[in-house]
Amino acid sequence: MEYHPRSEVAIGVSLILASALCRLTMHFLPSTVMTRFLEHILCTVTLAVAIVPAFDHQLCAAAGDPPVFARKEPETADEAVKVHACVVGEATAGATVRVAVTFDIHPGWHIYWENAGESGAPTDMRFELPAGCSAPMISAGRPHIDFPTPQIFTHGETTFGYEKRVTLSVPVTLPQVIPSAGLPVKVASRWLVCKGRCLMGNNEIEVDLSKPVSAESASGKELTASLARVPKSAPTTWSIALEEVGADSAVLTIDTHTAHAIKFVPYDTPGVLLETGFMAESNKGEVQGELQGKLRVKLNISRDNSLESALKVAGIVIVGNESSAYSFRLPVPAVAKTAG
Description:
This protein has helices at residues 5-28, 33-63, 77-80, 218-228; strands at 81-88, 96-105, 110-117, 124-126, 137-139, 142-143, 151-153, 159-163, 165-173, 184-195, 197-208, 232-233, 239-243, 249-255, 262-266, 272-274, 280-281, 294-301, 312-319, 324-331. It has 340 residues and is of the alpha+beta class. The chain has three domains: 5-63, no CATH class; 77-230, Immunoglobulin-like (Sandwich); 239-331, Immunoglobulin-like (Sandwich). It has a five-stranded mixed beta sheet, with no helix packed on it. The protein has a four-stranded antiparallel beta sheet with strand order 13-14-18-16, with no helix packed on it. Strand 1 and strand 2 form a beta hairpin. Helix 1 (5-28) packs antiparallel against helix 2. It starts with a helix and ends in a 9-residue tail after the last strand. The relative contact order is 0.12.
């Protein structure tokens, strides 16, 4: 169980008040064997009534309530961000569970999405899986994380991230035989938290993949809510294409065939950048009767700076009031070299 100072204070205050009530009762009742017996029963009941709600709050807080932050501004990243990790699902042979990491963020501060934007640094998770387990990986020890749709911050700079509380997760497939010793894994997380100034933080928590909590638990329900906000694949009815592809430029066109304004927020794609800014947004409202679910985005392409990966255009399209988001990836085609 996690330590929660608010619950400790509640228990202490309850004990003091209950003890005072018992003393008053013993002072005013006549001193007989029967009344003394009744006094002890009354004091026991009073203490139980005082303590149980406080302990009950502690259990609820450990299950999913956000922590209570100190009123003063944090001085360290650990003070600004509290990190919790658990495994959600069913530990059966070959089943897929999820490692869920929740970041509780000090009021007014924020951490970053997988593409931080104009400044900042992406939030990251790393772990080495036990033998027989598998997960989608970007590189050795670095899993593919399911990020919920980020908030867009435009205070001077355009950045993408999260305030208050966010849960990131990774699916892990268990082996066909689960060892009796369990499947321990150390989950290392790293983040940059900012509010006027920035603090770099890191954390390491060990979880056991063979001992998940239920999807119906508080942590399980919070994970479900987080996954509901992860961008889905773009609908096949949309038109997303690259046009005017040249050696160092191209135009991304998006047509959702709707009247809703859209925003394009790119992933971190080495070698491909927006010509201007860090996101693109269609006009709000209708202009000359045209649908506003359309977008043309000019791109700069640096074919020698793809970090040895295939050039691609990728990102999410946020529709309307940011309640829906969809992702896509497009390869950047090669161009014929001109003789000369």
